[in-house]
Every structure is written in C-alpha cells, then in structure tokens.
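Worked Example 4.2. Consider the chain below.
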Amino acid sequence: MTISVYIPLLVTIVLAVLAPRAARRPAPRAAAWALACTALVTAVGWLGSLALLAFTGFAQIPQVAEEGHWSAAALRTEDPVSLSVAAVSALALAAGLASLGVAAARQVRHVVWARRECGRMPGDMELAVIDDEVPQAFALPGAPGRIVVSRGMLRCLGDLEREALLAHERAHLRSRHHVFQAVWRLTAAANPLLRPLAGAGAFVLERWADEEAAARVGSRTVVARAVGRAALAAAGAARPAALAATGGAVPQRVRALLAPPPAPRTLPFVAGALLLTLCCGGLASAASDSENLVDSAERAQCAADAGAQGAADAGVRGVAWTGHRPQRPHDACCGHHGPGDQEGHRR
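Applying the procedure from the previous section yields the following structure tokens:
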C-alpha cells in the first residue's frame, strides 16, 4: 500500500496543474463535464488516500490496536507508515472535511437565497425586468429559474444583442450550470489544490452559454458584441452571486466567439480518463491492501492470545493425556487453519 495509496494524491496534483489549461481548448460543453468528473473523482481519491494513511498509521498505536483486537507489531512490520505521516494526513483530512461542511452550508444558503429572490421578482414569466438604471443581467436557478435584466442593461443593447443576452442566460438555466458550480465549489473546499479547476470551470460555463447563444441567434459576431457591451456597461457595478453574461474572462470569450467554433478534440479527454482510472485503481488497491493488513494483524494477535492462553493453562494444570492429539494454539485461533490441517480434517 505504500505506493498505491499515494497514486490518487499524485494524480490530483497533475490534473490540478494541467486540466485548467487543457479545458480551454475543446468544446466548452464537453470540457465542463470533464472538469466536473475530474473534480469529483480526484476529491474522493484525495480524501480516501488521506483516510487510509491516517488509519494505517494510528492503527499501530498499542491502545488503538488493543481496541481493534489486532497486533500493532505485525501491522508495523508489514506497513511502515510513520506516525508523522499519519498525523499530517489526519490533520489534512479533518481540515478538508470541515471546509467541505462549511462550503455545503454556504451552498444551501445560496440555493435558498436564489429561490427566495425568484419569488420576489415581479411577474410570473421567465424574464423579470427590474426598474434599475444599473446595467445587470443574470440567471437565478430555481424551480423554475428566472432571468433578471435591468432596464439599464436593456438600454445599452440593440435588439439582436438583447436576444443574444437572453439566449445566453437561458442556456445557463436550461443546462443547470449552477449544479456544475456547486460541484467545483464543494470539491475545491475539500481539497484546495482543486481551486484552479473551479476557476477554469466558471470560464467554461460562460463559454458554453456563449456557444448556445450563438447557435440560437445564428451569429457569433452578435453574441461577441453583446458580451462585450454588457461587460463594459456593467463594469464597476456590484455583481450578484449568480450566473451572469458579464462573468469570466470577457476578452477571451469575445476572442473565442470571433473565431470559428472549437474543433472536437479527443486526446485531452482520453488522457484525463486514463489518469482518473489510475486514481480509482490506486485507491481501490490501497483499500484492499489496508483490509488485508488488518486481517493479517488480527490473525497474528489471535494466534498470540491463543498461545498465551495455552501456556497459562499448561502451567496451571499440566498437559493431561486424553488419547487425543493436543490442539495447537494456531488451530484454535478464530477458525483459521493451515492447508495441511484442512487436508487432515478431510481425511
């Protein structure tokens, strides 16, 4: 387990460095799904590896081994995880779980806020126009969600640009982009190394909505102009905690819209899938090794207890001949028998 348990940690570091840059090149919809899967798998692998390291280290403490009924000496011999590594892993695991809990509570509050704001918006249509001169436009997820646009924003755009803006926000709601955001926020809270994936994911979601709007309007130039004008108009305004057309790196989005649609790419996804498979395989192998180590340590402790009990009984009563072969301590140990003993019983 000394090697396999570290594989998820290494894969997480590699993907945290490479995935954000690689996600900007393929089609944004596929890139968003790839980033979400990457964040989920690596977060689980990261926490699982930390848990295994912490357990196998602390399991060598005599008091813990006594409670678990296994041999600390046998476990220490077969799995040389030092207490310092176990302590660091335990602290990192505790910090990650605590941060995950705080992030989950914030996410719940955000969902409650969004649903409450949806109910407060005027009218019962998908589009809610607010009487505000501050240019702003964003999507509020709910059941159903609402698109909120201020009159100040509508005055800054032409008819086609307004259509492009609404198509952009409608794409956020239709594709449930707030779920992707929640995944990236929670996984980044559990593992700070995944924060670059969350930043790249926010940009990819805006690019996804841009491409959906371009397909709906039929002009990439109109969407690029709408995004640029909306961002300039909203510059300096307070940005709500919601999906907005003015979010992300606007110059890069406009440049991507003025270029041809991104060509399909398979190499980044294949490489990412292989790394994620390696992460899952390493974690499964480490978990299996840990289980085997504990089983071996339990058998060793059982054999030691049986041997100690047999020696104590022999010292008190002596060995009495009853016409039967004396039972060895190992034979009486938790029902475990060697191959020779099993063959003798069959005969």
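Confidence is low (pLDDT under 50) at residues 319-332, 336-347. The beta strands are 127-130, 137-140, 146-150, 243-244. Compare this with Example 4.1 before moving on.
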